[in-house]
Amino acid sequence: MREQVRAGHFIDRVAFAAKTAQAGAGEDLGAMPEWDLSDLYPAPDSPEVKKDLARAAEWAKSFEDNHKGKLAGLIKGGEDTGLYDVIAEYEKLDELFGRLWSYAGLLHATDVSDTAKSKFYGDVSEKLTAAGVHLLFFTLELNRLPDNALDAVMSKPPLDHYKPWLEDVRMEKPYQLDDELERLFHEKSVTGRGAWNRLFDETISGLTFNVDGAEMPIEPTLNKLQDSDGKVRKAAALALGETFAKHTRTFALVTNTLAKDKEISDRWRGFEDIADSRHLANRVEREVVDALVKSVEDAYPRLSHRYYKIKAKWFGGDQLDYWDRNAPLPDVPQRHFRWSEAQDTVLDAYGAFSPLMADVAKKFFDNGWIDAPTRSGKSPGAFAHPTVPSAHPYVLLNFQGKARDVMTLAHELGHGVHQVLAGRQGALMAPTPLTLAETASVFGEMLTFKSLLAEAREPRERKAMLAAKIEDMLNTVVRQIAFYQFERKVHTERKEGELTAEKLGELWMSVQGNSLGPAIRFGEGYETFWCYIPHFIHSPFYVYAYAFGDCLVNSLYAIYEKASDGFVEKYFDMLKAGGTKHHSELLAPFGLDARDPAFWSMGLKVVENLIGELEAIEASA
């Protein structure tokens, strides 16, 4: 059962790793929606939950009893005599498991400090993990079927429906272990990786930070790094560093344990490179990712180094303190958005591209599929979770009324639209590899940005908007590749022994200096900022997917602006495909190829051009 349908793996946490929503504390944001999870289950103690948990356990056991050891007999003589029906049953089981896991995970995200919700989440995870033991045999046995026998039947109806999924399963074949080892890995995940993930989440959400005498949780504190008052930004940065420093031993232990856990798993499964398991999950070749990383790293001087040098001059010096990196421009009024304005802004931008896109997105607002307010204990950041095709996705935000919050809304709704459209592929084939999962989200952001930019009439306002967009793109491309390089350093060095918190800080600072450039001044405390980024914990090497998606969308949007005829139809065909096609197949209708270095250059050139436009505004002022 594929990773993306699990409630513990939410598609996004962009507020931590890429785009931190800005502070709006004390401002009137208007009425904001909160989740209605009753489309999944009425309540955690409802009879429906109890019934489905029991049903999942019983059904999984009977599935194993009925089908284990019998799959080879279903494809004899070049004909399918029942394999389609068995896969269809497995898909229904996946749907049931996914619904339960999604409900428990989403409920937990509403308040990770609530012990009852945490217990429910833990109990459901344990019960489904135990039930899932009975399903482990299925993909393992599928991959023991002779290739020629499976090839002979999977292109014929009705089994051809599942051909993309079967091909995906077969890609895992070289890295699968025998049944008993797979069972051991599966059962120990609850007390292993899953437990350490939960410890990280609950620790981060429970931290408080003293900012000028006010104690606050992490989300509002991070938001203050984009306050218009430099003293507030500095106070927040120092508070973050001070609190992180008190807890780095815990975060170092979590990081070391999970890195070692991954090394053990990779070694047993035979992965050559520390990131190969992620590349396999993303269905992307290592060479493609290496080309992306090299292209971005080579562009550091033309992108981040160049931009932060310009921004430092706006702030009256040759360098910016690290807490001023994402600061709003001086002497530029910051537009404040009420929730209703944010909704209208995104829906109008989506609707100008396609009424279908706006119609799908509007359902999220109308039906309680968004949880927007910032609350104590609520999971920080933002994400979109697909749940299961028989239900619908849910979006979590921490909306605080600034322009980047609107961009985050556009981003997560892009995920949501993608997940709705891909849902028709069914539980096994709707999930999209992470590299392509960012496509619709970043495209939605671009649509919204272009819409807002078109409304800007004064050069000062246009300058501020361009600067904000450039910073978002640097955070999405440059920062994420730097994060990927940090992870590579951590996992490589962990093979030689445990890393101290100080060593982790050294590795962090080495990639920060290289990626951000000489115009950023790092102060004491910043060496601890590695510890709060959840991607490193929840999904190692996830981060390059942001850069992949951003460069891909930049290239797509350039094509859309030059020749929009037929683009919308091709775009929606790409989203509807879900996980049924490789990235090369999905990009081919647009004339794009991720294996071509020019592909990455085209995407990075978009960022360069925006910096050039900003410089032109500055020169004409």
- CATH superfamily name of the domain at 45-191? Oligopeptidase f, N-terminal domain
What CATH architecture of the domain at 45-191 would you give? Up-down Bundle
How many strands appear in the DSSP assignment? 7
Largest sheet: 3 strands, mixed
The shape, in one word, is globular
Provide the helix percentage: 55-70%
Strand-pairing-aware structural class: mainly alpha
Poorly predicted residue ranges? 1-26
Radius of gyration based on Cα positions: 24 Å
Compile the SSE list and pairings:
Elements lengths: L13 H4 L29 H21 L15 H28 L4 H18 L3 H7 L4 H7 L9 H9 L7 H10 L4 H14 L2 E3 L2 E3 L1 H6 L6 H40 L6 H7 L3 H14 L4 H11 L5 E2 L17 H15 L1 H12 L3 E2 L11 E3 L8 E3 L6 H20 L11 H4 L1 H17 L3 H18 L1 H17 L6 H16 L3 E2 L13 H4 L5 H19 L4 H10 L6 H5 L9 H24 L1
Parallel strand pairs: 3-7, 4-6
Antiparallel strand pairs: 1-2, 5-6
Helix pairs in contact: 2-3, 2-4, 3-4, 9-11, 13-27, 15-16, 15-17, 15-19, 16-17, 17-19, 19-24, 20-21, 20-27, 21-22, 21-24, 24-27
